[in-house]
TrEMBL record:
It comes from Oxyruncus cristatus. Belongs to the SMEK family. Pfam families: EVH1_PP4R3, PP4R3. Residues 601-613, 717-728 have a biased composition (Acidic residues). This is P4R3B phosphatase. It comes from the Eukaryota. InterPro entries: ARM-type_fold, EVH1_PP4R3, P4R3-like_central_dom, PH-like_dom_sf, PP4R3-like.
Length: 739
């Protein structure tokens, strides 16, 4: 097919070989046909599977079957070759299955197995492994009925112990007969029911434990085995009903009206025990409850919130178990994180005419639980050792177990006042799990998580983790920011630019140097997305603040492309300005502060209609937005001052040859507060821009906010010649926009 060669392997499995050039495809096709003895000019050389299946259906009962070799020790190799050879042909598989069924061949083979095992005939046992495995791959329920009967199943398991690829045979029969114990919650007196339960367990063991993982060519061979197990389970349930077995009589607490309440309080007691197996069992029970009915669990926890303190709420206890998991690989934490994600997933939340489960539960979660989930993250990105007990944001950590994971290693005893980053591997794994859940929230909880991120300045805290020595944790932090930018939400974009939150990402890129690794690719992809999607506000911020450090990166065209996009938008703005009468130019940047308030109010109202009440109050509008220049002249003066400052405040080159930024941007600036006393996140400001002030603070001039849809106040207007001349001698300076 031009640049494709397609063929079928086994049953219902199609493959294709793709070529870039038709000539290469034709060359390989001719060689294949040469080996097969087929004419390369014929487009189809393989007999279609469909025609074979139709032939099977039309095959008369008198059709000759495959002649089986006599069931003797010296014929085992021949039998193994025969069984293996028929697997690729549906017709021959059907004929072999009929022959095995009609002649009672399987029981004869299992008798030979006992002989070979008694004689310790290793070669014969290896052949029997291949034979029994091949018979299973015939995928016939009638053969399974024979093989999995009480009379034969343990010998089938015995044959499968002698895998030729293993140095020593496995001991599956010993496990099934001595180690595995049948535990009855209540006595089961029906012998047929007991036998069916035993059979199902053993067949499930064969499928999950004994048989090797099937290859791509074999994965469809065991579909009937899966169906056999499923129908066995259906039959067990039916037999329980027919026999009058009453679970309600056996376990009345599970069936009473208060069952969810009884079960989940019970779970909190089990999680509080010292026995690891008991806690693991409680987690399993909770997973069954969540998988069965997440809405039932959500309904319970919301009722619980009306009667209990936050510290003992079920969801918070689950989060505590996740945070305090003692497993070095955090296996339990991973399981609990998956259950939490199921509970907060809006896709499985119900909506009725009178209420919306989504808005009610998310309001509950962000009010009562989110601070517990983010506590380790906030504690590990605290800026001062004195913040240990409050997570820097004013709430008390709800449990002491957090500190056993190494959080204190990064906080207690530190004499530095700048941000810290966790180096404990287990803590890093935990923070990666939390970030994965928060990233899920960004994708699915647009309104609630947006308010939380902005009010807590969460993205700034997350980006501290870009300094982690654990690359996987730095990538998790970057992925969190990538999801936020991927929403293309201007509220997020303004939050990022005002807080200068690209700085830690670019520093990480520069610190990575010339290493071509996953971190490098992920950062490049972030900026490439911004370029391709043409997110103008972010492009302007990046080019204006960081292009001098990034222009030397030439192995990709991403940053040059950003500069091109920026220049194109700048030209469009210039042309747009030239088309405006000069009498209107002085007022083109004027915008009533009330308009901003109305826009934000409109946004909150729209989201409230969609998702319910706000969990946290909206971010307060910064005073800098109100200090808007009243005239075009003021704007041009501050613009010239900024351009003059940029010439002196370029990023400094490090010893490794890269650039390091030394801009002073505080957390309060991101939230719109005055930054006169804010501390620098990256480093101190340069002496040229400090003008004799304290090295940890800088006086900020009013920020200039450009009108909606335009670049952020960096448009050069060629028609203002007098202003250009004045720019060369102007001594006035102005901080970077958004600082």
């Amino acid at each position: 097919q031009d640049t494709l060669i397609v063929w079928s392997e086994a049953e219902n499995y199609d493959l294709a070989l793709s070529f870039q050039e038709k000539a290469g495809c034709d060359e390989i096709w001719e060689k294949i046909c040469q080996v097969q003895g087929k004419d390369p000019s014929v487009e189809v050389t393989q007999d279609l599977i469909e025609s074979e299946e139709e032939h099977i259906e039309e095959m008369p009962e008198t059709s000759p079957l495959i002649d089986l070799p006599t069931c003797e020790l010296n014929k085992l190799e021949e039998i193994a070759d025969l069984v293996t050879s028929v697997l690729s042909s549906p017709i021959r598989r059907e004929k072999l299955a009929l022959a095995l069924e009609n002649e009672g061949y399987i029981k004869k083979l299992l008798q030979l197995f006992q002989v070979c095992e008694n004689l310790e005939n290793t070669e014969g046992l290896h052949h029997l492994y291949e034979i029994i495995r091949g018979i299973l791959f015939l995928n016939k329920a009638t053969l399974f009925e024979v093989m999995f009967s009480d009379e034969c199943i343990m010998d089938v398991v015995g044959c499968l112990e002698y895998d030729p690829s293993l140095a020593q045979p496995k001991r599956h029969r010993e496990f099934l007969t001595k180690t595995a114990k049948f535990k009855e919650v209540i006595p089961i007196t029906d012998s047929e029911l007991r036998q069916k339960i035993h059979q199902t367990y053993r067949v499930q063991y064969i499928q999950d434990i004994i048989l090797p993982t099937p290859s791509v060519f074999e994965e469809n061979f065991l579909s009937t085995l899966t169906s056999f197990i499923f129908f066995n389970k259906v039959e067990i349930v039916s037999m329980l009903q027919v026999s009058g077995f009453q679970l309600r009589a056996a376990v009345p607490a599970l069936w009473c009206q208060s069952a969810p309440c009884t079960g989940t309080r019970a779970l909190k007691l089990l999680w509080g025990m010292d026995d690891l197996q008991v806690r693991s069992a409680a987690t399993d029970i909770f997973s069954y409850l969540v998988e069965f009915s997440p809405s039932m669990v959500r309904e319970f926890v919301m009722q619980e919130a009306q009667q209990s303190d936050d510290d003992i709420l079920l969801i918070n206890v689950v989060i505590e178990q996740m945070i305090c998991d003692t497993d070095p690989e955090l296996g339990g934490a991973v399981q609990l994180m998956g259950l939490l994600r199921t509970l907060i997933d809006p896709e499985n939340m119900l909506a009725t005419a009178n209420k919306t489960e989504k808005s009610e539960f998310l309001n509950f979660f962000y009010n009562h639980c989110m601070h517990v989930l983010t506590a380790p993250l906030l504690a590990n990105t605290a800026q001062d050792k004195g913040d240990k007990g409050t997570g820097l944001l004013g709430f008390s950590l709800p449990f002491e177990g957090l500190w056993c994971l190494g959080v204190t290693d990064a906080v207690v005893g530190s004499t530095k006042s700048n941000t810290i980053c966790p180096d404990n591997y287990q803590t890093a794994q935990l923070l990666a799990l939390i970030l994965e859940l928060l990233t899920f929230c960004v994708e699915h909880h647009t309104y609630h998580i947006k308010n939380y991120i902005m009010n807590k300045d969460l993205l700034r805290r997350v980006l501290v983790l870009m300094n982690s020595k654990h690359t996987f944790l730095a990538l998790c932090a970057l992925r969190f920011m990538r999801r936020i930018i991927g929403l293309k939400d201007e509220f997020y974009n303004r939050y990022i630019t005002k807080g200068n939150l690209f700085e830690p990402v670019i520093n990480a890129l520069l610190d990575n140097g010339t290493r071509y690794n996953l971190l490098n690719s992920a950062v490049i992809e972030l900026f490439e997305f911004i370029r391709v999607e043409d997110i103008k506000s972010l492009i302007a911020h990046i080019v204006e603040n960081f292009y001098n450090a990034l222009e030397s990166i030439e192995y990709v065209q991403t940053f040059k492309g950003l500069k091109t996009k920026y220049e194109q938008e700048k030209d469009r703005q210039t042309q747009k300005l030239n088309s405006v009468p000069s009498i209107l130019r002085s007022n083109r940047f004027r915008r009533d502060a009330r308009a901003l308030e109305e826009d934000e109010e409109m946004w909150f109202n729209e989201d409230e209609e969609e998702e319910g009440e706000a969990v946290v109050p909206p971010v307060e509008k910064s005073k800098q937005e109100d200090d808007f220049p009243d005239s075009y002249e003021k704007f041009m003066e501050t613009k010239k001052a900024k351009e003059s400052e940029d010439k002196e405040n370029l990023p400094k080159r490090t010893s490794a040859g890269g650039f390091k930024f030394t801009f002073s941007h505080s957390a309060s600036a991101a939230n719109g507060a005055n930054g006169a006393n804010s501390k620098s996140v990256a480093a101190q400001t340069s002496p040229a821009s400090s003008n004799g002030s304290s090295s940890k603070s800088t006086a900020l001039a009013p920020a200039v906010t450009a009108p909606k849809g335009s670049l952020v106040g960096l448009v050069d207007y060629p028609d203002d010649e007098d202003d250009d001349e004045e720019e060369e001698t102007s001594p006035r300076k102005r901080p970077r926009l958004g600082s």
